[in-house]
Amino acid sequence: MLQTGAHIAVTPVADKASTVGDLLLRRVQRGRIKPAMYEKEGGRWRAVTWGQFGERASQVAQGLIALGIEPGERVAILGPTKIAWGSFDMGAQLAGLISFGIYPKQSAEQIRYLLSHSDARVIFVADEEELAGVLEAAQGLETLRHVVPWTLELFEASKGRDPRILSPRHFAGEAADPTVIKERQATIEPDDTAILVYTSGTTGPPKAAMITHRNILSLLRNQADMITFYDDDISFSFLPMAHVAERVLAFYGRINTGLTTAYATSVGTVLGELGEVRPTIFGSVPRIYEKAYAKIHSEVEKTSPGVQKIFAFAASVARQAAPHFLRDEPLPLALKAKWALADRAVFTKVRGAFGGRVRYSVTGAAPIARDILEFFWGVGLPIFEVYGMTEATVITHANRPGAVKLGTVGQLLADLEHQIAEDGEVLIKGPYVFKGYFKNDEATASTVIDGWLHTGDVGKLDAEGFLRITDRKKHLIITAGGKNLAPANIENAIKNQDPLISQVHAHGDARPFVCALLAPSPIETLELGVELGLVDESELETRTAELMRNPAGRSEALNALTAKVVRHEAFVSRAREAVRKGNRDLSQVEKVKRFFILDRDFSQEHGELTPTMKLKRKTVESSYRETFDRIYDEPGFAIEP
User: Fold this and answer.
1) pTM above the 0.85 mark?
2) To bridge 438 with a disulfide, which of 162, 208, 434, 517 should be the other Cys (CB 3.0-4.6 Å)?
3) What is the pLDDT of residues 319-357, one digit of tens each?
């Protein structure tokens, strides 16, 4: 276990902070020697204290001020989730600038759009591949003055390629004069923009949400409304810092509470390092839990009948125990004895996959099946669903200890109002609602009307104020028979039946019935290919390593291997069974009558996924228009359950 602190409740600092930069100054003042972050170097975890981190951020601030970057100008950061990312961000905040993140692995065209739209003056870039994209994107872009490699090695290797490339030494000298920092902070008003967060662009070019200091501090002042953090808690960070959840709720939230975190070496090392860090706080997107759940069940299927019988007993006990854990009440004696047996045989191994000490896990951004939540709650791994959006500064609703209802995203957080519009859309009002979209008054005016944020999500409120999200307003399927269907319900019912299935896209707008595209999960599909003799072990190892380095990437070599497997009867049979099982949980009008298996998974390379792995439904509908027509017009083209 990494060193953190004592088991006492933390003391947040947001209540007295006036800006995001001031938040850091107050955290440093309160706990200078406490470990703030850990990173692995040479096989060992190295601690950085809050005092050291504050000093590093102040050096960055001094470097930016010395360059003549004026308060309110924009600074971009492109790189992995590391301590360095946070130091560049907080250096910009101390200097009174507006910072924003760019997701890794973007094309030069995408990077150019963000740099041009934001009028960024400086960009900090992590590695050689990303730098090449930035330099291509920056050609002729006069608004960008400086390109800063994260390391001296990268600077030395690239300094002759563009006169704007600046040594990172410029940001590693003397810390900024506290008086100058104080003066810059004093000029910032609560409703000034602190950060830009570019939306993932599922319906067009990304829009830049302006999140103010008031937005962020208002949220953080109510952080304790969700959970009590302790001084010896530790979290594990690996999600992209360009995303509003990791940036505001996680990173700024840790500055507020003083919570220690460990940064994963890479996305590919997460599973192994979970056992080293053993976090008590863990947050992730639903897909992580879905994949873990599916992997557990697929591994059990390979075991002997005796082991399968033990697991079936344990799974049954977990589902019986879950309602008691959800209500935070003790188990009845008979169930308690069964749970103890199941715990020794199965549950400790499941919890061990996440480090073995997680007491609070949070998920959001997409729906997750109730069966999966019940299972993890029952094994002693509580997962709290939350809801929010970039334009509402991350989070507006949350399930929390003592107030959990599966299938909902929880109750409204403090200082907010909500209502359901006549068409079912969820509306939010309060200090978390963003300032608007940078350089896009038209989009702002259609999103915030009379102070109410129109979320675009369709939902329902129960008598206790728990919110249930059914789907995106623009995603609803209206069949030829006039039935309104939520595709997310259909997709999740099928996707969670088999780990071979990565994504499901339900289609049926103005059609006589619902059909679906099934996209294969790359690793699981290649593993099946090895079993069938279609894929070599060496090919599986190579492509697995490739996916570990870039989980969102789908190379042509990977796609070619996947295509060899998906047409085999063994894959088709499992896909058919997944659709059949999913259909059992759906109403008659929702049932998928025909489906088509794609040769590859959806990908960023083909413009079908956002950097946060959300499906771009309009792109899929457009790209596969002919496929959908053939599914309806040529019965033999598609597969029937």
Assistant:
1) yes
2) 208
3) 999 999 999 999 999 999 999 999 999 999 999 999 999
Residue 99 tokens, joined: 């910072």
- What is the C-alpha to C-alpha distance for residues 519 and 504, in angstroms, rounded to an integer? 6
What local confidence, expressed as pLDDT, does residue 346 receive?
A: 95
Annotate 241-266 with b (16+ C-beta within 10 A) or e (fewer). Answer: bbbbbbbbbbbbbbbbbbbbbbbbbb
Q: What is the pLDDT of residue 547?
A: 80
Largest interatomic CA distance in the chain: 75
Q: Is 321 exposed, middle or buried, given 0-12, 13-18 or 19+ CB atoms closer than 10 A?
A: buried
Judge whether residue 567 has pLDDT over 70.
yes
Per-position DSSP letters for 401-443, written without gaps between them: TTB--TTS--EEPTT-EEEE-TTSEEEEESTTS--EETT-HHH
Q: Which of 114, 195, 209, 198 is CA-nearest to residue 435?
A: 209
- pLDDT of residue 9 exceeding 90, the answer is no
The pLDDT of 374-380, averaged and rounded, is: 96
* Interacting residues of 198 by C-beta distance below 8 A, sequence separation 6+: 100, 102, 114, 206, 207, 208, 209, 242
CB atoms within 10 A of CB 159: 13
In the structure encoding, which two tokens stand for residue 20, read together? 């995001």
- In one-letter notation, the amino acid at residue 180 is V
CA distance 438 to 197: 10
Q: Is 496 helix (H, G, I), strand (E, B) or coil?
A: coil
Taking each helix axis from N to C terminus, what angle separates 286-301 and 305-326, rounded to the nearest 10 degrees?
150
User: What is the rounded CA–CA span in Å between residue 416 and residue 593?
Assistant: 43
For strands 122-125 and 146-149, give the pairing: parallel
Phi-psi region of 329 (alpha: psi -120 to 50; beta: other; left: phi over 0): beta
β-pair partners for 241: none
Residue 460 contacts residue 489 (beta carbons within 8 Å): no
The stretch 417-435 carries a mean pLDDT of: 96
86-126 pLDDT, tens digit each: 999 999 999 999 999 999 988 899 999 999 999 999 999 99
